Amino acid sequence: MLTAVDFFCGMGGSSTGLRSAGYDIKLAANHWQRAIETHSANHPDTEHLCADISAIDLRYLPRTDVLWASPICTEVSPAGGHRKRTRQLDLFEEHGHVPTEAFERTRVTFWEVIRAAEIFRYPLVMIENVVEAAQWELFDTWLAGMTTLGYTAQFVSVSAAHIGSDTNPHAPQWRDRMYIVFNRKGVPAPDVRPRPLAWCEKCGTDVAAMQWWKRPGRHIGKYDRQYIYVCPEGDHGRVEPYVRPAASAIDWTDVGTRIGDRTRPLAASTMRRVETGLEMLLRGDFDRDFVMSVNNGGSCGRHFGPASRPLPTQLGVVSYLMGGAGDQKGTSVHAPMRTQRASGADFLVTLRRHAKPSSTSDPLATFTGAGFHHGLVIPFRRGSRPYPAVADPLSTMATRDQHGVLTPAINVEDCYFRMLKPREAANAQAFPRHYIIHGNQGEQQMQAGNAVAVNVAHWLGLCGAQALGAAA
Question: What distance in Å separates the CA atoms of residue 95 and residue 416, rounded to the nearest whole number?
Fold first, then answer.
């Protein structure tokens, strides 16, 4: 069995993905005790180390085939290093306090990767980080250090919504991340080219889509901004990969609290944006749902129908207000939710004629499976309308609990609101439903939001295993 060590393991997304790909996780290290409690509850056979990795003697750690590390560089992280976070801690008031030191110490550097690689010369090293990490002024210097140690780098930029298979369910969210896969000299380079399944109109069948980058160079960027997917047949053009519905992550039995009955009123700016969205809904701008953007520090307040396009990627924690439409049936959105981090809020608003939600035990509407036996993967093609009965992927889950579910009537006061729960955030990261999460609500949400998407770690683990098998 292949072995791995997981640096900056968090609640265990990377470890869970690697383990499901056949790895034995020898050691998991993190600086935050609450994350280690969660990790150890789910990975009892793994040795755990709660410490600042920069302060320990790495020579005493176990030798493994793979090092996985998820460092976050303070200088470049979209959520890092700004004192405005203090104000945002108020967002946890409804769900429990997260200690300030837990926020401060979630930012670590890349240098421990070089230190460990120098000692153990791992055959493979896998790094996960935000795309913006490549803007770090010392990024090339860090890469040169790995090159000096005999490693060759491959850059993989992918959204978690696009990774999956019959045995590795897609994460129902947009989550653009950069992955760097290093293979040591003498070890074959893993094939880590994303090839998500997509429907090609010209082929008349499903195809293994290929990334097409708008500019040459390193493959570092975000979906739609820096790259798209195309049919492998050279002249067939753009295709849209299948994605998993958001409804698979959300507990639709909980509609939340009527806005007019809240003890703490929503902000006036939020109420105005909901009203604007309802007016647009009544004008017929949307069939029955709309999405709007709300930031604590201000927002463009842009509204659009989720059936027309996916929710955008945006820096900042976002909140979603989701609801049902029609005769007591929970509605579904029609595209992936956007990335969420630290400062914003998105609302999806639905006209509800009856306040009673549908149960998750009710039969689901027909999903387009297209090769996925679970039937939870659906096609979304840019510029066309998806099937109206299908729901969409969630966005990246916030490290601070800011998601919401809203079931509106005509009057804003009659809309229903609640924050999305940490369990729903974990579902959106493709964690198993039985996964144990320790801590209060705020701590749980922070863990889920900072986690590595399980499905991507699983995929990269399999790619690495194939390369190591070839080397053996």
Answer: 18
